[in-house]
Amino acid sequence: MRPGVWIALAVWVLTLVLAPAAFAQEGPPTDDQVNAIAKQLYCPVCENVPLDVCPTQACQQWRDTIREKLTAGWTEDQITQYFVDQYGARVLATPPATGLNWLVYLLPPLAFAGGAYLLVRALRAWRTPGGSKVAEAGPAPTEDRYVEQLERELRERT
Amino acid sequence: MIAQVGFFIILLSFGLSLYGAAAAGYGGWRGRPAFVESARHAMLLTFPLLSLGALTLIYLLVSGSFQVEYVASVTSRAMPIYLRVTALWGGQAGSLLFWSWLMAAFATAASARRWDRDRELLPWVILVTMGTLAFFLSLVVLFENPFLRLWQTADGQQIAALFQPRGTAPLVPFDGNGLNPLLRHPGMIIHPPMLYLGFVAFVIPFAFAIAALVTRRSDDRWIRITRRWTLFAWLFLSLGLILGMRWAYDVLGWGGYWGWDPVEVAALLPWLVGTPFLHSVIVQEKRGMLKQWNMVLIILTYSSVILATFLTRSGVFSSVHAFAQSAIGPMFFAFIGLTFAASMGLLISRWTDLHSENKLDSMFSREALFLLQNLIFMGIYIVCLWGILFPLISELFTGQKVTVGPPFYERATGPLWGVLLLLMGVAPLSVYGRASWQRLGTALWKPAAASLVLLAALLIGGMRNPAALLGCWLGGLVLAVTAYEFWRGARARHQRHGENFFLALARLAARNRRRYGGYIIHVGVVLMAIGIIGIEIFQTETQGQLALGEQLTLGRYVVTYDGLTQFDTPDDRNVARAVVSVYRDGRRLGELYPRRDFYYASQQSMTIPGVRSSLEDDLYILLVDWEQIAQQGATFKIYHNPLVNYVWLGGLVFIFGTLVAAWPEREQERMRQPVPARAALVEA
Amino acid sequence: MPETPPVPVNTEQAPPRPRRWGVILVWGLLLGLLAILGLGLIRSQQGPVGVGAMVPDFTLTTFDGGTIDIRELRGQVVVINFWASWCKPCEQEAAELEQAYQQYKDQGVAFLGVDYVDTDREAMAYLEKFGITYPNGPDLGTRISQAFRIRGVPETYIVGPDGQLAAIKIGPYQSLEEIVRQIETARAAGSPGG
To answer: Is the pTM of this model over 0.95?
Structure first.
């Protein structure tokens, strides 16, 4: 074969051999990498405290567990799933969308839509078609109107 | 001895409040003014009595009377005097007493007015305020008595009781447990009182609303009377929440200020429904509309206050904010059920009385925009309420514990806050009654153009995040509209009266305090929004372990680890204090001292960050791990929080704006002069 | 620019009564809210599973990989101890629990250790430190601790041969005698005439 082909082949083989070594040489995960995953999880023991800021010894151990798993090459999803299996769904920041938990995500938009619908209906009911009518055409005599308005103003006077 | 006297004072107040509620109710129902007067006197007595009771407890706290159980649980010898006073609200029993004292104070203040024109409202106002007071005092008297003393039985057990049980000896502990270290921060000292002030102040408009419903009044008198109460209640509640955020930022050590913790959200609920109430009553005053809706809002506000107080104190949620578990839960539950059902039943029975005096003329009128704002706020309210209730529901029905955390709230409410910002920009330019989108557009185009210029500047400056761009653009719109309104008004005054610009501005605000005070408050909201956008979207962080002399880099900042000392302090804690130097762009800015305090008495530790604050950003440094200092160095976590100080600045602007809005107007006083001729005409 | 147009006099008829569905919806929501709060309150006041109640069913996967179903242990006295490696008070009773196990293992008393929200490495280190030989396993998904409604660790639940809880200890045992006393109570509870 031509020398060019040998060189290409050599490069190809070298890349294959060296690549895993290159990955392995990335070094231990930094604190930031651990925190990036811990940020998404909650402390299983202390309520409502995110895992990256929880100061207890147990949380420190969990962050170390994340570090171990990262070193072993686990992905973020795998680590998150591991925590869920070990400690339950409450370590996640939002409920997993299964079973009853769908209700959490469905109800607010539904309620909002319901409220918007009620609002539109109320607005329509209150509308005067074609602009405001200052006084309704009615049989009420003028004097009564003044007396009523007077009484109302007296009551409302600050 | 003193403790027993204190308890009897509280017991007496409890009796008076019960009597006051009952007498007022009877007097109002049967039309017996003598009973109502008697009830009023009973109410007026509760305030001095409860003040005396609170002072008694404060005296016991300050004098270190550890034989009283409450004193032993929240104070210690090492605590300074001012901190012992604030320990009044450091535990469940004391804070319930403090709540009750505020209720009595506000009820007295609300009744200190001339009732001539509103005599019929008085009995029901007394009933509601005294009823609420009686409830809270019942909790103190029956379950959470701060005056219980400690006694020791023959076999070494400790009992807490008011009077010496048989076969026990008095027990005077040498020292108390001391206040929870987390509560010893200045923000935490003012945060509960401020929050309680807001909560309790909202009871007053609620009382007047109930009174208006009972007496079948359909006018807006109750709104006018309680206008300033509502404004101040809103201000205190907002400040209470902001102070809580500041406390969390300074002391909880996660570089953030709001964690969407269920107890935090519960305290936010009254604000989420009190703010639309504040706006919606204006429509009723101006146009006689939305009467039923305003009743719904104030009932919801009061109910949310009681609900928030219940959730924080009953142990249903456990959180860093909550009190320890207590037996008051069932009582609260009964009270909630009773008041919710009674208010709603009353409103439904009076529904047809509250007919609207006007029709809606246009979808672009101010009334319509207020309604839209109300809808958006209610949307946020539902999201928050559902978010805190769902974990309970999940655990009850499936046994599975779940967390509803920040991603849920942020994604669900983010767009809604954006629409609110938009409305804040558009609505001030709208008119009541007949309005059209053309007219609105004509008024709006100049400020809108200015805001687009701002948007372009941000894009050119390199901002690319869509949420941040949208938020900043809308904030800019609000600022532009507000400035435009002020400028137009001042220019009109200048043209008509020849006043110079600043005088015109001042007179303008004085003439229409509510409107221009409101604009100032809106500016405060925009400032807070800018701060929130800065820290939520542009926050960066890093963590690393440093040996002495090593450095950590975050963006333009470089932090060098200079040293660490560890020592004990006279007030019973062990402090590990690190010294770091901060550089930006190569230039040395100064030193910071992040530290870790360990309190021996309660075996708790607190992380105090070292923070360098400027209007532009905060550099926030935490000492994370120091146990290994001897071997490997110290671990630091650094947060860069851009623009976060605008959040606190916004709070200050709230205060200024509320003062402008609530200041008594001279116009009003002039109008108060009686007009005998017309009165004679009507009464003849 | 005037803000308030002249207020027209209202001669409209009164609006309709609140619609029935509206009223029903509102009362329904209120009852729903009260039900949730009430149930939540009851649960928070409930405390752990009490003496006399049937032991909750559960399956424990041990660190060695085996599984133990509590139902298979019916007829024996079972000591179920909740612990964690990060729990300092748990260490106080660890050695005594192992001693009690050695004393009773040939007398038909089973010991189970349930590791509450812990990490495997620290848990194994803890077991090795105190020489614990009875079966231990992690409480996966915190299902077992939730079934017992524990408030913290350590807590110990002793089941009689009839499957009912005979004794409970919240907090660490102070002495071996205390453990023995509770086990004897459980054995007596199960025997006829006891």
So the answer is: no
